[in-house]
Write a structure and sequence with these properties.
Layout (H helix, E strand, L loop, with lengths): L1 H36 L3 H4 L14 H7 L2 H34 L5 H10 L5 H14 L6 H24 L4 H9 L4 H12 L1 H17 L2 H6 L8 H6 L2 E2 L2 E2 L1 H31 L7
Helix pairs in contact: 1-13, 3-13, 4-7, 4-10, 7-10, 8-9, 10-13
């Protein structure tokens, strides 16, 4: 019994050390960026490098936030991300509900085809999207960015929604219809409130993808008034070198909104993945 207990303790310690190693690997780049953002240029370029700043220096953050272009990048990202989330959730809710509740010809094939489309990837589609935007006169507009972002993430969110819809008993909707609700009313007043966990999970996933999208934003925009935050970060890589202080400060600032949203909604986000969202087909 003692040998078994000792073996269990060693295995538990090994798992904890392994998890700790993963945490260190994941957090190391963030902590190093945060550390660099709090140093003046002379200390950033000093050799040997210092592990911690000799004195907290906020000049990099003040420099970045004082730039009108950077504030515009934040605004553009916020607008595009917000409408991408709204459009993706609406389309995914309707498509997921139809896939879960109705039978129609080739339904399984269409759902697999929808998901398989994600395997093509953005890089293969970016040039056709560029010419499509030019043809439709939507190049360098919010609308094109929103449509492109939503198109790439909607298949995944649709699958999440339809899997969760299947866990909701049809009897709930039938009872609502007996009480006088039609299909549309029972969907919005009965079903959608139950869907809060997958809706939050889908919103967080979509927000993260849209907020951090670089390739599509770089290809489908031209003017600085339409550039988003990830593209804006690239402008700190100048012909004269990398502005490490402002770049790391801007990177930290770009992470904060996603971090706040995730910490605020993490309970619903995790529940969306553990209450049937990924179960079923």
């Amino acid at each position: 019994m003692k040998a078994r207990s000792s073996h269990t303790t060693i295995a538990r310690i090994g798992r904890h050390l392994l998890l700790l190693g993963f945490v260190v690997i994941i957090l190391a780049p963030f902590l190093w960026s945060l550390n660099t953002s709090l140093k003046p240029l002379s200390e950033i370029l000093s050799y040997p490098p210092t592990l911690f700043p000799a004195k907290i220096f906020l000049g990099n953050y003040i420099n970045v936030l004082s730039q009108n272009e950077f504030r515009r990048f934040i605004l553009n990202s916020a607008i595009v991300t917000l409408f991408s989330v709204i459009l993706t959730l609406l389309v995914s809710l309707f498509a997921g509900y139809a896939a879960a509740r109705y039978n129609f010809p080739a339904k399984e094939f269409l759902m697999l085809l929808l998901l398989a489309g994600m395997a093509i990837g953005r890089f293969a589609n970016v040039i056709p999207l560029y010419f499509l935007a030019i043809k439709l006169k939507l190049f360098d507009t919010y609308l094109m960015l929103v449509l492109a972002y939503s198109a790439f993430i909607t298949p995944l969110i649709t699958w999440l929604m339809q899997s969760y819809f299947k866990t909701i008993p049809v009897a709930i909707e039938e009872a609502a219809k007996i009480d006088g609700c039609n299909t549309w009313k029972s969907f919005w007043m009965v079903v959608v409130p139950i869907m809060k966990p997958p809706i939050v999970a889908g919103a967080v996933i979509t927000m993260s993808r849209a907020w951090n999208e670089f390739i599509l934003a770089l290809t489908l925009t031209r003017s600085s008034d339409m550039r988003t935050l990830p593209v804006g970060l690239h402008f700190f890589l100048t012909d004269y070198g990398v502005e490490w202080g402002p770049l790391t400060a801007a990177s930290i600032l770009s992470i904060i909104p996603i971090l706040i949203v995730f910490l605020w909604l993490q309970r619903y986000f995790l529940q969306g993945f553990t209450s049937g969202t990924l179960g079923g087909s």
